[in-house]
Design goal:
alpha/beta, D-Maltodextrin-Binding Protein, domain 2, 44% helix, 21% strand
């Protein structure tokens, strides 16, 4: 068997398809080339390794994946140890707003604490970060937390974040309670996707108030929520985050009687000493923010 073909199969199986594998490969390779080489591997073995649509490993594919996965998963760590940097590098994932507002300080503290500390950074929302952690594609994720993380994923809460509504600065609304008094809220709601914990908890709070208000504009980040509110496109659902000011043209309406969201750290397995140090510094910053 061609080792390069096995590597391509590992990425396809890990990421659930050829297109996803092409995005995650550490070197450039097009989808047609991956598909062609996987077909060559299947010809050599005389079996089909996975069903294409929907993606699912066959029995033979799962057997092959279980055999080769430990080798390919461990290559990065071996390379780091050979270079002498395996104990100073962390793979981190966090939403854009966390990357911008909090990670620079956290990583600066780590550089002062650990000589030679360096890191890689991946963007993602809560569900994506959970998937990255579960697949061991990152070492530590920073995100809102759910009550039931994926199997084997460990979490540590750092902060509780209150929900809020964002309205245009010129809006006549003085409090969120004024909205609940209306028979029907006609103003568009701007929020993250329905699967995000923030949106799920907000909808739960609305039901307790006997209110129905479905998202009209689904966007990819809290920054984008604020930008659309500032543009006069509706009312936004967001979080009150320490040290983060509302942008120009936007006012904050607190949602004091709604649930707060847990924000924290997630990882899988046992944290390395470097991971433990990162967690300690994150907890120290969170304590100051509280």
């Amino acid at each position: 068997m061609n080792v390069h073909h096995l590597e391509l199969f590992y990425y396809v199986a890990t990421h659930g398809g050829v297109s996803a594998a092409a995005r995650q490969m550490p070197y450039g390779i097009q989808q047609p080339a991956i598909s062609a080489q996987i077909l060559q591997l299947e010809d050599v073995l005389g079996v089909t390794l996975y069903q294409r649509r929907p993606f699912q490993l066959t029995r033979e594919g799962q057997l092959l994946y279980d055999h080769i996965a430990p080798f390919f998963k461990g290559l990065g760590d071996v390379a780091d140890r050979i270079r002498g940097g395996g104990e100073t590098r962390l793979r981190i994932a966090a939403p854009e707003i966390v990357q911008r507002e909090y990670l620079p300080e956290l990583c600066a503290r780590m550089q002062r604490r650990v000589e030679g500390f360096h890191f890689t950074l991946t963007d993602g929302r809560q569900q994506q970060i959970e998937q990255f952690v579960a697949a061991q594609e990152i070492d530590i994720g920073l995100s809102t937390l759910t009550d039931k993380p994926p199997p084997n994923v460990e979490t540590r809460e750092l902060l509780r974040l209150p929900m809020c509504l964002l309205v245009p600065a010129k809006s006549s609304l003085k409090s969120a309670a004024q909205l609940w008094e209306k028979e029907r809220i006609e103003t568009p709601l701007i929020a993250l996707t329905a699967s995000d914990p923030l949106v799920r908890e907000f909808q739960s709070g609305l039901r307790q108030h006997g209110v129905e208000w479905i998202t009209s504009l689904e966007v990819g980040s809290l920054d984008t929520v604020a930008r659309y509110v500032a543009g006069g496109f509706g009312i936004g659902l967001s979080l009150q985050m320490p040290r983060v000011e509302a942008p120009a043209g936007v006012r904050v309406l607190p949602l004091d009687d709604f649930p707060t969201l847990a924000f924290g750290v997630m990882w899988i397995g046992r944290l390395s000493p470097l991971g433990e140090a990162f967690l300690e510094e994150a907890q120290a910053i969170a304590k100051g923010l509280r």
